[in-house]
Write a structure and sequence with these properties.
Order of helices and strands: HHHEEEEHEEHEHEHEHEHEEHEHEH
CATH topology of the domain at 213-338: Rossmann fold
CATH class of the domain at 213-338: Alpha Beta
Distance between the termini: 190 Å
CATH architecture of the domain at 213-338: 3-Layer(aba) Sandwich
Number of strands: 14
Helix content: 40-55%
Strand content: 15-25%
Strand order of the largest sheet: 1-9-8-7-10-11-6
Number of helices: 12
Shape: globular
Largest sheet: 7 strands, mixed
């Protein structure tokens, strides 16, 4: 019983203690309870604030105008930087592809301009060259005229005496069937006279009225000409080529390799290979006249020229060289004499007689002193040949060269075409 009383006392004391405490709390709590209320309120509201703060932060991160463009710019710039080199490489490749194509396209034009027209080491005299003002021709008297020389040499003018007017007769133009041409028979079938015969069904006869005789060495030495003093030779025909080298052999003169050859046409230039190796020589040629060589002759005007010629040389060549003030020597190396024409019985059997040199006209007079022209037409080439014909009392019916036909074959073609129409 005593133990139970002790326990009951202890419980009662504890209850009293707790009651006292409660009382004291209630007495002291007006401010503390307010604080605790605020604290509990804040603790209760803090999750809302935290949630609002996190929401604002997330919205700021998502909606911030600075951070988003930087990442977007970085992401957009990265592929742009990678794509830019590809375009640049493509453009560079396109430029490289265009340049070779342009070069390759331009290359053939350059090559074609550098291709030489003439044969090896044979230089054409047609190519134009601009001469300095110091070499311009001197003023010419009023009796002379300035004539364009060459094909493309518009600035090259040479003083040439005006050609005299040749009068052609008005004899009736009857039909032409036969021709007698005072030249040796051509070696090849490619000849304008053969073409003329085929065109009009003509009967042609080739008979040389003159023959060439080489001048003896004794007569040549009488001219007192030293061949080796000359560094250039002007060759006007194959006959001049033959007799030039014949005279050199007979006089035991070795022609040096440095000798320059100026030929009147391409055929004469090719004929030189009979005596020399033309690939190792300096050879120039024109088209058909000495005036085609004006450019190259002026270019070599310091050289002394040798002109192998016959006893009767064309005055046109001499006048041309005089007009250029060229140092030259005319060397007579062959002469023309009349041929024996006793095999021709009657010249009136031919409708047209064709002559090319004054020597041919003299041979006609020598072999047929009683010839009466009648209806036989006579054609002459060149002023000297025509004048010689008229001096011997014959009639001139066809003349060349003329403004319409520069060649004899062309003049014959025009005449026969009109005559055979009737």
């Amino acid at each position: 019983m005593a133990i139970k009383k002790k326990k009951a006392v202890k419980v009662a004391s504890k209850a009293n203690a707790t009651k006292g405490k409660n009382v004291t709390v209630t007495k002291k709590s007006p401010k503390s309870e307010a604080k605790k209320a605020t604290r509990t309120a804040t603790s209760k509201t803090s999750p809302a604030k935290a949630s609002t703060n996190s929401a604002t932060k997330s919205t700021i991160k998502k909606a911030s105008p600075k951070a988003a463009p930087k990442k977007a710019v970085k992401k957009a710039a990265a592929p742009a930087k990678k794509a830019a080199p590809k375009k640049a490489v493509a453009k560079a490749a396109a430029k490289k592809a265009v340049k070779p194509a342009v070069k390759k396209a331009a290359a053939p034009a350059r090559k074609e301009a550098s291709v030489p027209v003439a044969m090896p080491k044979i230089k054409k005299a047609v190519q134009p060259e601009v001469t300095p003002a110091a070499e311009a021709p001197k003023p010419v008297a009023s009796t002379e005229k300035m004539v364009k020389v060459g094909v493309k040499t518009k600035k090259q003018l040479v003083a040439v005496a005006p050609q005299p007017v040749i009068e052609v007769s008005n004899h009736p133009k009857t039909k032409v069937k036969t021709l007698l041409i005072s030249q040796p028979k051509p070696e090849t079938e490619k000849n304008p006279y053969y073409d003329l015969a085929n065109k009009y069904s003509l009967i042609e006869t080739f008979r040389q009225f003159i023959k060439i005789e080489g001048l003896p060495v004794k007569d040549f030495r009488a001219q007192r000409i030293d061949i080796l003093e000359h560094k250039a030779v002007i060759l006007t025909s194959r006959m001049a080529v033959d007799h030039f080298f014949r005279m050199c052999n007979e006089m035991r003169v070795t022609v040096p390799e440095s000798m320059k050859y100026f030929c009147i046409n391409e055929a004469t230039a090719y004929y030189l290979q009979k005596y020399i190796q033309y690939r190792k020589r300096k050879i120039f040629f024109g088209h058909q006249t000495i005036q085609d060589l004006v450019d190259v002759i002026r270019k070599n005007r310091d050289e002394k020229f040798l002109l192998p010629a016959a006893d009767v040389q064309k005055e046109q060549i001499v006048d041309f060289l005089d007009a250029l003030n060229i140092k030259y020597t005319k060397a007579v190396m062959y002469r023309t004499v009349s041929a024996d024409l006793s095999d021709i019985k009657n010249l009136n059997d031919y409708d047209v007689l064709v002559f090319f040199t004054p020597a041919g006209i003299r041979s006609l007079k020598h072999n047929f002193p009683n010839f009466v022209q009648g209806n036989t037409r006579i054609a002459c080439f060149g002023v000297a040949t025509a004048n010689t014909l008229l001096k011997h009392g014959y009639r001139l019916d066809i003349y060349a060269p003329n403004p319409k036909n520069p060649s004899m074959s062309g003049a014959l073609d025009a005449y026969i075409k009109e005559a055979n129409k009737r």
